[in-house]
Amino acid sequence: MSIAELNALLDKRHSCRAFLPDPVPQDQIAQIVTSASRVPSWCNAQPWQLVITSGDETDRFRDAMSNEAENGTPAPDLPFPTSYSGEYQDRRRTCGWALYSAVGVERGDREGSAQQMMQNFALFGAPHCAIISSPAELGPYGAMDCGGFVTAFALAAQALGVATIPQAALAAYSPFLHQYFQIPDDRLILCAVSFGYSDTDHPANSFRTERAALGDFVDWRG
Ligand SMILES: Cc1cc2nc3c(=O)[nH]c(=O)nc-3n(C[C@H](O)[C@H](O)[C@H](O)COP(=O)(O)O)c2cc1C
């Protein structure tokens, strides 16, 4: 594969926030997971474990997750960021406003933005959801290895025409996820990845995020 082909795949992937209901064939899901598992991990521990839902299981989970987000209290296994400042705050605002303006939510429309936020828990209509966990004993490096896995999952999916969105929003309700999927307490729930085929005409999928220039984040020495 050339760098041009790799960049084409990287450019094509984006976070999908409206899916068609059509399921992804099981053998393709297995292919995506197999490809993603080729990523490096410290000591080759391969700390990721996944629960993957399909069909009625996804719909049951969508309903239960939405209900939990309405009525439950956030308690993520992995501490959420305490704040975003400077350029991180700017980038966060920019991508947030890109989404809200794409779906017609105006500044100050708290109800509209809350409704859009709730779409996370309805899995943006995706027919599948993967819940990713890592052994607590591996700490932040286990989570780091799983981050690589999530990225490779998204790229492998894209290579098969399958759209994805990583979602920390669901991990806010980790105690619920442990109980719902019987994920043992010695594992940290890191995030979810909802996936399926993109509803390309949906306004939520009409914008793209930008990336900082190299000079903003590389300190060249020598
Ligand atoms: C670990 C992780 C968690 C994320 N959680 C959410 C989320 O809960 N909800 C959401 O809408 N997007 C979520 N995203 C998607 C990011 O907002 C998105 O990757 C970023 O804005 C860059 O846009 P792109 O993925 O379209 O390139 C998450 C991404 C990552 C990597």
Summarize the structure in words:
The protein has helices at residues 3-12, 26-36, 55-71, 86-102, 110-118, 139-159, 174-181; strands at residues 49-53, 128-135, 163-167, 187-196. By secondary structure, the chain is of the alpha+beta class. The two termini are 30 Å apart. The chain is built from 7 helices and 4 strands. The radius of gyration is 18 Å and the shape is globular. The mean pLDDT is 98. The chain has a 4-stranded antiparallel beta sheet with strand order 1-2-4-3, with helices on both faces. Bound molecules: flavin mononucleotide (FMN).
Query: How much of the sequence is in beta strands?
Result: 5-15%
Rounded average pLDDT: 98
Name the helicity range: 40-55%
The strands making up the biggest β-sheet line up spatially as 1-2-4-3
- Rough outline: globular
- SSE order, one letter for each helix or strand: HHEHHHEHEHE
Strand elements, count: 4
Ligands bound to this protein structure: flavin mononucleotide
* Chain oligomer state: single chain
Instruction: Determine the number of helices (DSSP H or I, runs of at least 4 residues).
Output: 7
Biggest β-sheet: count, sense, barrel?
A: 4 strands, antiparallel
**Which structural class do the helices and strands define?**
alpha+beta
Distance between the termini: 30 Å
Cα-based radius of gyration, to the nearest Å? 18 Å
Low-confidence stretches: none
